[in-house]
Amino acid sequence: MGQKGPVTGSLGRGDAVPGHVIHLPVAVHTLDAAAELAALLAESLAFLPELDAGEVTVSAEDAQHERHRVFCDRLLFGDGRCGEREGHPGQCVAGVPGTVPGPERSLAHAASGAWVGPSVSPRSS
Predict the structure, then answer these.
(1) Do residues 39 and 83 make contact, with C-beta atoms less than 8 angstroms apart?
(2) What CA–CA distances, in Å, run from 119 to 30, 91, 109?
């Protein structure tokens, strides 16, 4: 039997090593706006091997136990998982969630105007 030692190298999604999950609360007005913003964040961080975009979910602030998937992530026969958004029309498309090309989106356009960027109050001097 081999000797067990410290884990070296980079561990990414799917590795069977226990870890920690980052919960990053961001409040927006609607479920659609939350899903759009979560997808945009996942897409912008898709280069991180630790990110499992297929597991990104959103919830209402007062019902965090009721989570809604952002990406389909359906297991496809021999082709990995679907990288499309949850509830997408048509066939599933193999790819890493958050990297499958879709319609042009921008943060200002997220969820048809329901979210238009952070609402940050200016600091008083």
Answers:
(1) no
(2) 15, 37, 15
